[in-house]
Amino acid sequence: MNAGRDAQAAATERALARAHGLANAFLASLAERAVSRAPSPDEMAAALDEPLPETGSDPAAVVDEWFERAERGITASPGPRFFGFVTGGVTPAALAGDWLASAIDQNAGLWASSPAAAQTELVVLRWLKELFGLPVEWAGALTSGATMANLVGLIAARQWAGRRLGFDAAAEGLAGHSPIVVVASTEIHLSAVKCLGTLGLGRKQVRKASAPGGSVDIAALATLLRDIDGPVIIVGNAAEVNSGHFDDIAALADLRDSHPGGAWLHVDGAFGLFASASPRLAHLTRGIERADSVASDAHKWLNVPYDSGFAFVRDGAILREAFAASGAYVVGSGGWDPFTHVPEMSRRFRGLAAWCALKAFGREGYRALVERCVDHAAAFARWVEATPDVELMNPAPLNIVCFRIVREGCGKAATDELNRLAVRAIQEDGRAFVTGTIWNGQAAIRAAFDNWQTTLDDVAMLQAAVKDVATSLTP
């Protein structure tokens, strides 16, 4: 018997039991609890800020104390009425897998550190390619989300472009070499722009074509490409984040193929890639199998816990070249080393939650989930069109509805302010959570539908909250 270890085991068991109890109670409350209480920064600082403790505390008591102090700031984002941003829920299998991943605490960076984690990730990547109809031979890796997935795709694109220009971008850097040109639409997502800045390609250097209605104007993009002599990186959307409209990916691939200097097509499919999982919606992503790289989120429509995403790259060799690194203590082990495909050396075992989610739902489960969410978005869009004082800003082809509250005789500035107030009022109301945006220069409201638990009753609660706020607010 080891008294010290017995005490540690007992403390661990108590802490896990308390966390399990708090988690179960929270999950059971999701259908009824306020989605947000909209606390102020000062309120949250008062609740949580304190000096570093000088001595320790019982682990179970620590968990209990944090939850009690932080609860006002915990949104019901895994719940069925969180329509803000593009936020999925967490399926039971995914949650269980994530809990287990924390308990077994595997480093998913190298095969040697966890053969189970590395092989699980390989299986998940193959399943995802099968789900979306992507070529099975493509390389890929799990990431922290679509932002990091965009970074993976774009760093491979940068490496390819550097090679076309006669240098090794990863080894030599960009200084002193010809600039690498990037073209996209005006609806390029901020995460892709952030990645371009991180990679030294320049946030302000993107040449943008117009995107009327959210989809890139192919003729305008072709005009941009005609003025570029050398290699170019094309960034396409599947789909844009304000109303879910897709670029014509097949047409982008045609432009890529015909560009004399060579081109790399990267597709940001953070949530839109999931249209490929539905025969009814797959036409929206036509041509995506012709891309050179694709980025997507798993914590959106796959409904696994934060954080999780994935990237696929056609040319595995150029991807590995971009991330090449060696050290005396990093010894090859004969299996797949994920760190050769991503920036991190050490990584959380995200593959377990994704494996459990895909195994539990299967292809048919995700097809049904995607189609159900799209049907919910369509139902809400129809309600918006039929409701006085509410206006649809753009058709909703997928799962995002962009709308605004209007008043007869109200000018642009007053209408914009009305909608900014409406977003806050809906969030404070607690029945549903939405987020604001700017569409065609006008303040608007977005509702995104991608949670596995959402029903038409939840859509009706969103409608009631919007209607009540629209009626009560004064411009």
Describe the protein's architecture and organization.
With 475 residues, this protein is α/β, with parallel strands linked by helices. It folds into 2 domains: 3-76; 96-358, Aspartate Aminotransferase, domain 2 (3-Layer(aba) Sandwich), CATH 3.40.640.10. It has 14 helices and 11 strands. A 7-stranded mixed beta sheet has the order 1-7-6-5-4-2-3, with helices on both faces. Strands 8-9-11-10 form a 4-stranded antiparallel beta sheet. The longest helix is centred in the last third of the chain and has 36 residues, at 351-386. The protein is globular, with a radius of gyration of 24 Å. Pfam families: Pyridoxal_deC. Its cofactor is pyridoxal 5'-phosphate. InterPro entries: Aromatic_deC, PyrdxlP-dep_de-COase, PyrdxlP-dep_Trfase, PyrdxlP-dep_Trfase_major, PyrdxlP-dep_Trfase_small.
| Portion in strands | 5-15%
Main sheet attributes: strand count, strand direction, barrel closure: 7 strands, mixed
Read across the widest sheet, the strand sequence of neighbours is 1-7-6-5-4-2-3
Which architecture of the largest domain does the CATH hierarchy give at level 2?
A: 3-Layer(aba) Sandwich
Q: What's the CATH H-level homologous superfamily of the largest domain?
A: Type I PLP-dependent aspartate aminotransferase-like (Major domain)
Q: Which series of helices and strands comes N to C?
A: HHHHHEHHEHEHEHEEEHHEEHEEH
Global morphology: globular
CATH topology type of the largest domain: Aspartate Aminotransferase, domain 2
**Rounded mean pLDDT score:** 97
